[in-house]
């Protein structure tokens, strides 16, 4: 691959790495699994990057690849993430520490979200990221109407989980 393609990928990944961290947080329970999943998503993004045509925003495309990777690995290994070698190439990404203190404030919400199925997790994640239903439907490959209906059901499910007595 050309250096310009590599530089473009690294630039886009730097600008959008928080998306990947948040997806990793959603599908993992500890730092090691988080780092492994982040690495695997990065590898999958790198492998797929030459096919990225720019028909959608990089962030939308990255959401799709990252969510598909997380869901596939989650289903295959039930939270035991295997990684592949990154072809020995050195990429100049800074290892940015993820701010778990900020995430602690959402601990109860994450606990509730962990009880959702994989598609529901992806949908609620994008909703909480302020993605509109058009982008959610495009990323998940469902209709906007289906995304809205699913979102309303998920909200009800989360309310029951977070307030089981209905008080």
TrEMBL record:
This protein's record includes keyword Transcription: yes
Endpoints of the signal sequence: none
Transmembrane regions listed in the UniProt entry: none
Biological process per Gene Ontology, one example term: DNA-templated transcription initiation
Protein keywords: Sigma factor, Transcription, Transcription regulation
Domain RNA polymerase sigma factor 70 region 4 type: 110-158
GO MF annotations in UniProt: DNA binding; sigma factor activity
Coiled coil: none
Residue intervals of the RNA polymerase sigma-70 region domain: 14-79
Protein family according to the UniProt entry: Belongs to the sigma-70 factor family. ECF subfamily.
Name the UniProt record assigns to this protein: RNA polymerase sigma-70 factor, ECF subfamily
Annotated organism of origin: Flavobacterium micromati
